[in-house]
Design goal:
Rossmann fold, 9 helices, 47% helix, binds guanosine-5'-monophosphate
């Protein structure tokens, strides 16, 4: 008999490289699929409705909220994002584990509502690395980068609510660690990994590095 799948939540401060890590992880794991969220934000060039997001109007989103159709939902940058219960259940029922790439408010709601969810927090190697990544995108002004860094500091405070914290220093190393976590969770041999990826210790190491470099 095949096992039922479980939800895997991956959250991270903006600029940590979460999307790249998640795409690489899903592409290398046939037992893992993306949850496709609903959002009220406009679609960007190259995005496809139903694949990247379900793009819906404010009114339709509110209708879904009223109908309690979302496992979780949150407002981010003025837009609303949510994970539909039905889509999640369908994929879980197929025996797939389902990756929810979401922001931290939504992750906290999943923590409260789904005991079977595994929550993973991605950390940047340092504040300086985060600033460098946000700068390299070339999309934001210096003031906007400062604002995003301030938001990121607030988001870091959520790390202790997660089961695991993994530093995204090198993409392949990070994905390998996530694959080990999933393998262990699937086989229930999680104790050693939980100790190695303890969120409180990972956060303390990040703060130590920032203190040593003055955050630069
Ligand atoms: P973007 O607009 O850049 O695609 O996403 C903005 C933020 O919303 C990202 O942190 C992304 O992970 C998060 N997000 C995407 N889908 C959901 C969702 O269904 N729920 C929540 N809470 N956040 C989401």
């Amino acid at each position: 008999m095949s096992r039922g799948g479980f939800p895997v939540v991956v959250a991270a401060p903006s600029g940590t490289g979460k999307t790249t890590v998640c795409r690489e992880l899903v592409s290398r794991d046939a037992g893992l699929c993306f949850s496709v969220s609903h959002t009220t934000r406009r679609h960007r060039d190259g995005e496809v409705d139903g694949r990247d997001y379900h793009f819906v109007s404010q009114r339709d989103f509110q209708h879904l909220v009223d109908a309690e159709a979302f496992l979780e939902w949150a407002v981010y940058n003025g837009n609303r994002y949510g994970t539909s219960c039905q889509a999640l259940e369908t994929r879980l029922g197929e025996g797939l584990d389902v990756l929810l790439e979401i922001e931290v408010q939504g992750a906290r709601q999943v923590r409260e509502r789904r005991q079977d969810a595994r929550l993973i927090f991605l950390l940047p190697p340092s504040s300086a690395a985060l600033r460098a990544r946000l700068t390299a995108r070339g999309t934001d002004s210096a003031a906007e980068i400062d604002r995003r860094l301030e938001v990121a500091r607030g988001e870091l405070a959520a790390a202790p609510d997660f089961d695991y914290a993994v530093v995204n220093d090198d993409l392949q190393d990070c994905v390998s660690t996530l694959r080990e976590i999933l393998a262990a969770e699937r086989s229930q041999q999680v104790r050693a990994l939980r100790a190695a990826c303890d969120p409180v210790e990972a956060l303390a190491r990040l703060h130590e590095r920032d203190a040593a470099t003055g955050g630069e």
